[in-house]
Amino acid sequence: MKWGHHFCKNTFKSFNTKMSSKYTFLSILIFYSVGKITASVKFTNIKCTSLDTNFDDFEYCRLKSENRAFKYISLKLNLYKIPITNVKVKFALLKQVRGHKSFLYNITADACKILKYPKSNPVFGFFHNLFRDYSNINHTCPLNHDLIVDKFPTEFMNTQIVNVLPFPLGDYQFHSTWIVDDISRAEVRVYGTLF
Predict the structure, then answer these.
(1) In sequence order, what are the beta bridge partners of 91?
(2) In terms of domains, do 25 and 86 share one?
């Protein structure tokens, strides 16, 4: 679990008059650290759908466990009409609250532009950086090959998401739609739990 500065400040506000500032700070630090240590991400499912099988199709899309501690995602999208020079990605982070509701991000980005100029969209750049080293989607357009994500591990998500961003505990879905030449061609939905 992770709590931000605002939460800690309000929680310990009443103690400020009774405790010295030294002990208040120590209490906040311990409270924050305990929550930070216990949070963890677990992948629970992945669903990949081709929306135009004449244009692309998934050869495989799987969530696999090698043991209790190592779970990863692998997928391969075969592209039938290359090169691709005009790609947009619509992605949303959804949280399970009586159905999946938009939680933090719901944006559409020009993937070719951002691959060329990563600082042009920091949010998309952050999410791309999560899987870039496990993928062949790591260069500018044109895309002239099938798209692969190979053994993208949960543990990497723990270091990049849990330790960087203060998300509340619960079930999440990362939903992406891949749009080429203004036509939706594929969807990838990754489900996970922050516990």
Answers:
(1) 107, 176
(2) no
